[in-house]
Specification:
Length: 328
């Protein structure tokens, strides 16, 4: 299984590299370019018009590899492969469609879908995924790091799962504000949940994580500074929801704030900024999300990105070790 996962990762990476350049040319041809929000940092104005919807590249590559593995498997293996991966692939595609519509509306009109409208679709996807995970795997509890499983009941698990999927989807979306930032931190997060899935005995989740990791790495080839293509909501919203469903399936949802510490920090920074301004009329950060604050205090974009990558890598390793050290 480890060799299969490695092969899938390399295949996804190579396929993404092959398809990346023609896909970017197609985006340019159809003038699907990013609209930069005027209230953002002035240094980001140069990104105006860079092709967006880059997330469709790694979503498409992941789907191709998922179908390829499915077709190769005998029926008895499919009966295990599909239940373990149907919710992550479903979240990736369904939330990716939402993000693609949002990106296209933004390109056409200069503004995206309203937040509450996106929240409705995210909630529907999250609820369906949460109920499937709970019923198929009989999940009634969560694993507390270094302690073991703690029963919380079906209803509480579904509620927690729904909140987690929606929150993580938006958390990754908030992180997607610099070249390579969301993609790089997502790579470390998915590698971490891959090791956690291996520790919990979900081999096909490991293979799925390998596919999406390889696909994101191929995307990063074109997305690192200066970016040739931007992930857009197509990729950012989908990555967060998918990451959450994998963590929920393994039972280690409580490790998401660890392995996804950057996504959590970005979200919390926005909540603090909005809350402080409404309550006290003052701002805590120069600008939120958090990466914009560091850029405005003098950090170069590449420095912010790489330092956030390093934090994400360390956090991912910590989360994987905690999962292995937790009693089953």
């Amino acid at each position: 299984m480890e060799i299969l996962a490695l092969g899938v990762l390399l295949s996804a990476f190579l396929l993404g590299l092959v398809l990346g350049a023609p896909y970017i040319r197609a985006l340019r041809q159809f003038r699907i370019g990013q609209n930069i929000r005027p209230e953002g940092p002035q240094t980001h104005y140069v990104k105006q018009g860079i092709p967006t919807m880059g997330g469709a590249l790694f979503i498409g590559v992941t789907c191709v590899l998922w179908l390829f593995v499915l077709l190769l498997l005998p029926q008895n293996e499919r009966d295990v492969f599909i239940p373990q991966t149907i919710v992550p692939i479903g979240a990736l595609v369904s939330v990716g469609v939402l993000g693609a519509i949002d990106d296209l509306v933004n390109v056409r009109y200069g503004f995206g879908i309203r937040g509450r409208h996106k929240l409705v679709w995210q909630t529907i996807v999250g609820l369906v995924g949460a109920i499937y995970i709970q019923r198929h795997f009989g999940v009634n509890g969560v694993y507390v790091p270094l302690v073991g499983e703690v029963q919380i009941g079906e209803v509480a698990f579904v509620a927690l799962a729904l909140f987690t999927i929606v929150a993580m989807s938006n958390g990754v979306n908030l992180t997607d504000g610099m070249d390579g930032l969301a993609g790089g931190t997502a790579v470390f997060a998915f590698l971490s949940v891959a090791f956690i899935a291996a520790a919990r005995g979900f081999p096909w989740l490991v293979v799925f994580c390998a596919a999406i990791t390889g696909a994101i790495l191929a995307f990063l080839w074109f997305n690192v500074h200066p970016a040739e293509v931007i992930m857009g909501d197509t990729g950012a919203l989908a990555l967060g929801a998918t990451l959450a469903t994998i963590a929920l399936t393994t039972g280690f949802v409580l490790l998401l704030p660890v392995l996804g510490v950057i996504f959590v920090a970005e979200t919390v920074s926005v909540l603090i900024q909005v809350g402080a301004f409404k309550l006290r009329g003052r701002r805590v950060f120069r600008m939120s999300p958090l990466h914009n604050h560091f850029e405005l205090i003098g950090w170069a974009e590449e420095k912010v990105t790489i330092r956030f990558w390093l934090i994400g890598a360390v956090a991912g390793i910590v989360a994987a070790i905690l999962a292995y050290a937790t009693p089953k």
